[in-house]
Design brief:
globular; mainly beta; six-stranded antiparallel sheet; Umud Fragment, subunit A
Length: 114
């Protein structure tokens, strides 16, 4: 379960080590609601790649200026990620646009910003 903001995450946001992201759409219901905000860690450490179960923000592979928030389902040996929304009926994800390269990951969600 995704936790609400902690003092540590708040301080990291103030120090600009975290970024805010506003959820759009219903693809992550019931966990994340439309207009809810989360904090993301934009630094992807090559030694700590996203893993199955992580929630990430990624650049949409087919629409240049669009970012999506999805759960990592699997990571292949070449580092490509298969992403899905929690609400499969209302999610456009890797089932539609294919896997996402690590370079397309904007950041890993660390907590809700509330």
């Amino acid at each position: 379960m995704l936790s609400d903001i902690s003092l540590k995450e708040f301080v990291l946001w103030v120090l600009r080590k975290r970024k805010r992201f506003r959820v759009k759409g219903n693809s992550m219901l019931p966990l994340l609601k439309p207009q809810e905000e989360v904090l993301i860690d934009p630094k992807i450490d090559p030694n700590q790649l996203p893993k199955a179960g992580d929630i990430v923000v990624a650049k949409h592979p087919k629409q240049e200026n669009l970012q999506v928030i999805k759960r990592v389902i699997s990571v292949s040996e070449d580092g490509s990620l298969f992403l899905e929304g929690d609400n499969l009926k209302e999610s456009t994800d890797s089932r539609v646009f294919g896997t996402v390269k690590l370079e397309q990951i904007v950041g890993r969600v660390t907590c809700r910003f509330s």
